[in-house]
Amino acid sequence: MTMTEDPTTPGYKWVGTRPIRPDGLDKVTGKARFGADLILPNMVEAAVLRSRHAHARILSIDTAAALEMPGVQAIITGDDFPPTDDMAPGDAHQAVKVMARDKVLFEGHPVAAVAATSRAEAQAAAKAIVVTYEQLPHVLTVDEAMADGAPILHDDLITANVDPAPETASNIASRAFFERGDLDEGFAAADAILERSYTTKPVHQGYIEPHAAVADSGQNGRANLWVSSQGHFDMRTMTAKVLGMSASKIKATPAEIGGGFGGKTTIYLEPLAVLLSRKANRPVRVVMDRDEVFMATGPTSGSSMKIKMGIKNDGTITACDLWMAFEAGAFPGSPVGAASMTALACYDVDNFRIEGFDVVVNKPKVAAYRAPGAPISAFAVESMIDELARAIDMDPIELRLANAAKEGVQAPYGPVFPRIGFIETLEAIRDSDHYRSPVPEGQGRGLASGFWFNIGGNSVATVNVHADGNVSVITGSPDIGGSRSSMALFAAEEFGIDVERVQPHIADTDTIGDTDVTGGSRVTLATGKVVVEACRKIVTDLCRRAAKTWDCEIEDVEWVQGHAQHVSGTESPLSLADLAANAGRTGGPISATHAENVRGAGAGFSTQLVDLAVDEETGQTSIVRYTTAQDAGKAIHPSYVEGQMQGGVVQGIGWALNEEYIHRADGTLDNPSFLDYRIPVASDLPMIDTIVVEVPNPNHPYGVRGVGEVGIVPPMAAIANAIDRATDCRMEHLPMSPVALLEAINERNAD
Hints:
Blueprint: E1 2-4, H1 24-29, E2 44-50, E3 56-62, H2 64-67, E4 72-77, H3 89-98, E5 103-104, E6 110-116, H4 119-128, E7 130-135, H5 142-146, E8 172-180, H6 183-188, E9 192-200, E10 212-217, E11 223-227, H7 232-243, E12 250-254, H8 270-280, E13 284-287, H9 290-296, E14 303-311, E15 317-329, H10 336-342, E16 352-360, H11 374-391, H12 396-403, H13 422-430, H14 433-436, E17 443-452, E18 457-465, E19 471-475, H15 483-495, E20 502-506, H16 523-550, E21 557-560, E22 563-566, E23 574-575, H17 576-581, E24 590-598, E25 604-615, E26 620-631, H18 638-657, E27 688-694, H19 715-727, H20 738-750
Parallel strand pairs: 1-27, 2-13, 11-12, 15-16, 19-20, 26-27
Antiparallel strand pairs: 2-6, 3-5, 3-7, 4-6, 8-16, 9-14, 10-11, 10-13, 14-15, 17-25, 18-19, 18-24, 21-22, 22-23, 25-26
């Protein structure tokens, strides 16, 4: 279902339709090549030796026996990498993340890597490497890491953004802080005040394809790198920094990607593959096992939060005080900053203080996961708002409408919102059949909203018109959610030709200009914009060529439905194919490139509604009905917009009810597989109903906002709110698993 805010929105021939994706046939027939599919002549396989300790000093690494084993071509350790002394702190942490130096900081931390003629030989040799450790005390949660006397992970880590700056190292890497108004006055004006604490656990992005990389290093100092990632330009840059190379000496080629959701925006294997290839003088392929993915790559953060919020009886939120601490993993860089930015962004609140801390612990460095940080802070804020609605006996949608951010409201993190569609998502849910229907007997209904700011960034596109009038669109944005289709739709719309005549391509780092990662809901917005601008350059050129053909002024030519036509109607129209066939006589090849650091990302909002049932004998929660409304700005390919919305909800359901990393007391992971890490499957879920709201982003030629992030923000709070209404048990800790919920039910019954 699509709701368009403006009935005067221009009608399009292709934008807004649902053609089959250009890469679909190759993927369903198995022809598409993913990260582990590439086989090069003379290629060898690699294996990584990883720490089984959460925190330990490396006393020695003996590779002598492993080097003598059958098939071994090369072994690398931290000694083979450039020193980190002169690197920027972030680059140094990246380097130590991919290969340990003096210490291991988490289970799964690489300590050596082996290349051999077969994977089995590489794995056997890796096991033969002898590492002597001195075990050190470890910390696994923010509470442990921030406690007095806690073991310190990094002796040089001084908390940033604190005044005055601390003089001693701690596990607190940095502080985020936003405030406005007067908290004391705000709470004094409230008729009801609530205080709550919440915790969440680290969760995995759940991508199907493990990490993989292939490298072929030449004796000329250059390297070819094939990566399965969300951004091969970033993989190239990060790999080059870790290895002390110039980025231009690495050519990175994108493979197809079997899911990422933010988890494939950073390096793990790429520098190892390049260095092993250099040492072995042969191409090297390295592929993670699933347990390596869980132990050694980044989930999103676990967290601890405290919130105090006040409200008037008329529904006005008067004040909010929010404190958060996020796990960063072994190196700084949790999404607590983004969580702080987004926490209250749905609402116009005069008095607030938001304080967030980035805390290192002995776990893998966290990575992005759809709207990084926002689902965590929304769990606290949206749960609290639901409790406040009950406290003043107000409909939860009406409470949100009374405080909703709209055009002209200043976001908590600074910018003033232009036209946004949050109110429209609330109204879409309020007016839906789902909300208007009675709550079935024995079920609970919950509501929550969410925000993500979306991003723009660097994108480049080259558009070529071939001699037959067909078109190639070349970009540097890996396709995860159907962006090839969006680029083809943009080009077809601009040229006025059938979308089947447009072939989108994703180019390597030597073929197209620097392009930022596929993430942050930026590709359809930013890469789409540069595609549109490149097409418009060509349309102008086509009109010039037609004017030359007709010996008239370019002002006398217009482009209409795939043809150049003379405004007087005295000349026969020239199609794109006509002009392409005659290109050699009107100026040569027809091609244009557009590069831009795209600004003006449109903020994304989502409001979601869930009905669920709880088995009070087992604590099992069953999702019965789910509706999500989201402002897409403009749905370029509605099927993929709906799929992004549904996918975010499904991942949020897993995060709410089952998913968590479970660590033993010694810091090792207890559930490093999809057998023990429980993600939702089709039988767990109803159809997720979607309402696509279209409030155009004024900063994009087609009104795009981006849709990949915000859908995962509301589900955890929506489900917690529904569980509360079904059971009268307010769940403040994720996941709300059967065990946890049954314990809460038993406590309720005991009272």
